[in-house]
Specification:
This protein is of the alpha/beta class. Helix content is 37%, strand content 26%. The protein binds adenosine-5'-triphosphate (ATP). The site of adenosine-5'-triphosphate has 12 residues, from helix 1. This is Phosphate import ATP-binding protein PstB 3.
């Protein structure tokens, strides 16, 4: 069974259609990169999955998206959906709390109270993102003091702390230096062993380095999705070939 499935999905801002009849599946234990020119609808597609797109004025949609087999439109309590589907944004966001409380924000929200459980979650997640050794002696210091790359790894740890099944990332490395980008790419590759990861990226090299599959969107339409090597080296569509060879975008 696919982990995320779009079925005849259309999205609009007011009268303007921004996603047209999207039908696509994302499997478990894989990284899919979403690529396409600026404004083609990548972020809207990503934010439709956890229903944060509908927070935008004028947004509406028809068709459906299923997460773990269930329609997101039938989810009554959005926090249930947001627990299954974690999200990491372009700008590294540290909550105005300590490093420790950034990681524990979600678990506390979902009712974990036991101190040893909280400590175990914190250490596990900070180790998962290779941040534990860097911060273990200053867990109670403000997260604002971390570097951009560290904040982004902390944001991933915060997302992982509620054990999501899907991790959405919207250009997570666009403000990071190559070393921090490399750390995050390694981390995503490891996390894909247990998660469905969907990453929007403008960096075609990054898509090629880390994703198992790549989806190309143009003007709100899914042109094709294929194993990454195939999409870059022998795409079905001339539009995809044009984009990946840098002719436009
Ligand atoms: N809140 C909004 N209200 C109205 N139109 C919007 C809104 N957000 C996005 N759009 C429009 O919807 C279209 C798709 O935007 P989206 O951000 O999904 O594209 P994108 O491919 O992620 O772009 P980029 O690569 O530049 O981040 C664009 O034409 C954009 O201008």
């Amino acid at each position: 069974m696919s982990t995320v499935e779009f079925i005849d999905f259309h999205a609009f801002y007011g009268q303007k259609a921004v996603l047209h009849n999207i039908n696509v599946e994302f499997g478990p234990k894989s990284i899919t990169a979403i690529i396409g020119p600026s404004g083609c609808g990548k972020t809207t597609l990503l934010r439709s999955i956890n229903r944060t797109a509908e927070m935008e004025r004028g947004f509406n949609s028809h068709g459906d998206i299923r997460v773990l087999g269930g329609s997101i439109k039938e989810v009554r309590n959005l926090s249930v959906l947001r627990r299954q589907v974690g999200m990491v944004y372009q700008t590294p966001v540290a909550l105005p709390l300590s490093i420790m409380e950034n990681v524990l924000f979600g678990p506390r929200y979902y009712g974990v109270k036991n101190r040893s459980d909280l400590d175990a979650i914190m250490e596990k997640c900070l180790r998962q993102v290779a941040l534990w050794d860097e911060v273990k002696d200053r867990l109670k210091r403000p997260a604002a003091q971390l570097s951009g790359g560290q904040k982004q790894r902390l944001a991933i740890a915060r997302a992982l702390a509620v054990e999501p099944r899907v991790l959405l990332l919207d250009e997570p490395c666009s403000s990071l230096d190559p070393a921090s980008t490399g750390l995050i790419e390694d981390l995503l590759t490891q996390l894909a062993e247990g998660l469905c990861i969907i990453i929007v990226t403008h960096n075609l090299f990054q898509a090629r380095r880390i994703s198992h599959e790549t989806a190309f969107i143009l003007d709100g339409r899914l042109i094709e999705k294929a194993p990454t090597q195939k999409l870059f080296e022998s795409p079905d569509s001339p539009k995809t070939r044009g984009f990946v060879s840098g002719l436009f975008g």
